[in-house]
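Suppose a classmate hands you a notebook page containing two proteins, each written out with its sequence and a corresponding row of structure tokens. How would you begin to make sense of it? This section walks through that situation. The first entry is reproduced here exactly as it would appear on such a page.
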Amino acid sequence: MPVKMTIFRRLILMLVLLILPILGLYMYSNQVSVRVVRNEIKESNLQHLSFLLRQAEVTVEQLMLAANTIGRFQVIDDLIHIDEKPSNYEKVVIKQDIIEKLRLSGASSNWTNQFTVYAPAAGTGVTTLNSADYGAMFAEDAITKEWKYRETSENGVPVKQFVRHTVYPGSRIIVEVSFTADNIRNMLDQIKLKGKNDPFFYHPGELPIMNRTANETLAEGVVDYLNGRKVDADRAESGTEYVRLQGRQYMINYVKSETLNWVLVDYVPMEYRLSPIKNSSLLFYACIGMLLAMSIAFALLLYRNVQMPVSQLLHGVRNMERGQFSVRLTNRQKNEFSYLFHRFNQMASQIEQLIENVFAERLRSKEATLKQLQSQINPHFLYNSLAFIKSMTELEEKEAVIAMTLNLSQYYRYTTRVENQEATLGEELELVRNYLTIQNLQMQRFDFELDVPDDMLELRIPRLILQPIAENAILHGLEPRMEWGWLRISGERDGSGNRLIVEDNGVGLSEDALEKLRIKLDTPLDNESGCGLWNVHQRLKYRFGPEAGVEMSPSPGGGLRTVLHWTDHENKGGPS
């Protein structure tokens, strides 16, 4: 009897077939990993050194910039012509002013620095140093336009410092800026505090500038190696060397400072960095390789046997959510999903049949409801109209009789047509015009105005939707008012939808009465609720959705303002 290959058994078989190749790949993976880590360490150290060196160069460039701007001070011209000053007090004031400006220039840097300004023509200068021998400091062979490392003395104590001169045109003045090697040493101390580095500054022929806790033995070995390799600071850019010192292999990284013409050097033991990787690489990379391969296998297997069927099932469910109940699923593989697909197809078929039945029933119910609502509109003013015709006939007012008869016939011709449940807004307005003309003939104490844009006249709306609003305005607003009245019907259309506004200057309603009427519009019709506004409100909701309806508020003219509103997208695709 053949064994049935279920999804689980296929997964087990795939794992067994993948284990054997993994055992042959771990050696190669280990070698590649060590090489990659070595390169990463080198690149990381070089980038770190470049970043730190750039910070130092920025500080040095600030000092150079300050030296280049000192000669532009107005008081420098006073120093050049200081011999022309009549009193020693003025000379002292000039020098003191220059000293203050030199200190302000040096304050822009976080390094300890000194500035000296020398005017050769006057044979004098100003300095922030404690003392200065201008003749020796600005001798021709002592002037350097590049940074120079030299040893000098302050108060009898030898001091190593970097110095640079800025000579202004015509040797008008010479500015010397300097900073001690302790600034470099402080920077190296900060670098070492942040890691296990042991950096130092190197230049052939000079003693290296080391951090204060440096391993001098190892550092000297690195310097001897660099001297033997003839790493020239004039030509070096950046690089990496490997050297064995005291029985251990070290990686030496160096980056040249273009500004100072020195090289920042750092060395790290490779054993310290690579030994944990070597010790764990076999197990780590073997596991990673196995997990990776297993993941790929699982992904492929699950995609074909699980993901694809699940995707089909989800696609079918989404189609059903969108109302496409005719969707059916197929599965050629004989597995657990075959049963699910079969049951899904049965369920979809049953739901489709049920939806069709319910939808047909709802259509019939909705049509019956709309006809019932339309039939509730009772032209109760017929008797008054006939009485008016009788009275006018007795008075031999032929024109009034003709006008009443014409408008009344057009009015009832429209209202008695029940074959179509919708009409254009233009047709509805014509009906309202007939109705208002009839009422005006009877009352003869109000004016009316219809102001609806032409682009709204072709909109399709439920029939007899506007006349009940005008009827309420006449009967409950203008008729109780004994003074002359007016009624205006206007239309608006914008991005938010369409609005028909009916407003008058009748007696209106109080705020409490308005609130009660608003509540009744959304409650089921009962014996106490009125039919006119209620059925208009409900028919708008039936036709255009729950956002459509009737809103009421006080009119600026003192009467009532009624707004019928619906949106354009709800007006599209409806029944005609």
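The notebook's second entry, a different protein, reads as follows.
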Amino acid sequence: MTLPIEAIKPEFLTQLAHNHVVVSAATGSGKSTCLPLWANDLGKVLVIEPRRIACTSLAEYLASQAQQKMGGKIGYAIRFEHHFDENTQVVFATPGVALRWYFENQLSDYHVVMLDEFHERRWDMDLLLALLKSHARHRLIVTSATLNTTPIINYLQATALHSDGKMYPVKERFMANDSRAMPSKYDLSERICEACEYALDNTDGDILVFLPGKGEIQAAAGQLSHLDALVVRLYGGCHPEQQRLALNVQNQQRIILATNVAETSLTIPNVSCVIDSGLERRTHLRAGKTVLNLEAIAKDSAKQRLGRAGRTQSGMCIRLYGEHAPLIDTTPPEIHRESLVELVLAAGCSSSGVDSLEFIEPLPQASKAAAIEKLSQIKAIDKQLRATDLGKLLYPLPVDAELAYLINAMPSKSLQQAMVDAIAVLSVPARVYQLPNSPEQIDILNKQLPNHCDLELVIALVRDQLECVKAEPDALNEAKQFSDQLRIAFDLPQRKHAASYDRNQLVEAIAKAKPDWLFVKRNNRRGAFGNGKSEVVPAKETRVNDKCQAMLVLDTYALAGKGTKQAMTLATLNAPVNLNLVTTLGLGEQHFIDACLVDELIMAKVSHAYAGLELNEQLLEPSGQLFIDACIALILKGELLAPAGSQITQSLAEHQLYYLANNTPFEMLTAKQYLQDKLTELGLQEQDDIELIEPQDLFYQQVEPWQLEPFIEKHPLHVKLNDLLMQVEYSFTGKRILLTHVSGNRKEAPKKWELPAWSGFKVRYKKASKVVDVK
């Protein structure tokens, strides 16, 4: 069978000999299988595929077509697995593998590099393209399933080629009550079942169902078990047998339940009907961290999904949402919705720094600045944004840089081993285990791990020390692979020889390295925990119980609500800690409350708070600014250097009144502000310094007494008539005076003849809420 891409072969070979080439072609046109073989005329070819399942399936297909064993002429490399040697001519690799090879030798083994499915706009593909453009040593092929290739063509100054392919008509059917109904997760399995039943009655080909993730696929598979069809599950990390059933035509009609791995990366034969849930799991930034959330797809994805039904015959696309649902036009590139920590570190390792590279579009400044700050804090990059020796050590490791930093930060080999095993579980994208449900198994687990600590649990799980916890075999095996690889990288014993560790020492070491992972319980109904910057709620998957007052949070996921205020971040992998650890590590803030004299020694009463929670109060001998704060409090209470406190308070008020009366500009100054400046000026630092200061040294006096005293005599701040004490407020511009009752039993208002001679002022008297004119 002649593939549509064959039409551009002569021009492709002619242009590739002299220029970079950008090829736009529909999925199924043959671009991923033909272009690498054609390009091999120029030398070895590295094909970068966004997804592992595409890497392995494409390599296996081409090897079988060439009737060669895998790893001969055709090979592949994914995390933890590779099949190629120095003679392999075409190697399929994931972007993460290719970036690490670039770091090692700038991909010097290859003449041609092909970036397949570039329209998915992963951050690692964007970075690879920027590095390869800067390096200018390879001939580049960039492929896209969309026609909007103008930005790439201009960026590379490349030749554009297009293959139309053959597309049969596809009829759309919308299964929604409202034409504007958005994709929804509610009753999804039941609606999938209804759509599949309709499809089986109306099509003879296979049915491809797009679902957002493995969980939804498993749920739908259970719902479809009664149908007369072969139900196949296809997702990243699925069993090889399921992958084989999905990629090859079977004797029985199939219902293939797939994530968007089947949207463009793979060609699935004999599909005549697509059922589109309209949902996908998409990354986005939340509090500076990349999280995975359930989202409605964009219109470009909807178009790609529909196209899968019209490759070999007329087809049908059943949408489980409204015909006029307000979907966004395009899926945002990953650089706009993910943390850039890994990108900035990779750029620092493989170039002169992220700012030395020209990207296909500028990186978001806020995300880039946050990544630079985070990497600078762990000393993985220098001021020029180039990777430090530590950064170069962390980067090749198969885990996030921050997690790799944690391993390096552990103070002993035994704690490093424990950290490696915990991070191995954190690095697996799939769910690794489920907590037991039965009371008997819960009791066994609580006896084995009495601290209710998820951190202890995952370490024991990787070390095969738990029998009462149900693990997902594939995910646990991947975690063990991570652990084994990290143990080799850090020169640690094998898992079977894992050393025991002290849980409290591990928790403290993690908190020292990552203090922002320490959360304390807030006093609210949600049972939330905070760290001063963000808030989390313990997930149902955690072992942490209601008695926990503080915990280390090692992993979270976001749970969206109807509005931003209802959105929650759920903490899934946690370690309970004692609240005292917060103060032991010097975290949080110390607040001055008051001061007192104890045996003529100045003491400060302070409280310690973290994330808005008052942890404790204590009386201590102060130093530095705390000592000055204590002195100020005692002076103003009249217990130290009297009568300086009363003189300063009175004099400041008198001066401000004088300046107001004379319309003279002045700085509003409180007694605390004045004393802060004065005591600092006098060099007050410790207890003995007080003996060198006289009360008069602190007195406030700016206006000469011969000017100020006659004014205050006419304009007193307080007036006392027998036992009646009143505060006086002046409005010189409005020529008004307000007398406010302070103390005294007198019932009637004062008389004007009893008061100072305030000529030209209207005088009023206020007691409680009643205000009357003074006559």
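A careful reader of the second entry would note: The first helix runs from residue 9 to 16.
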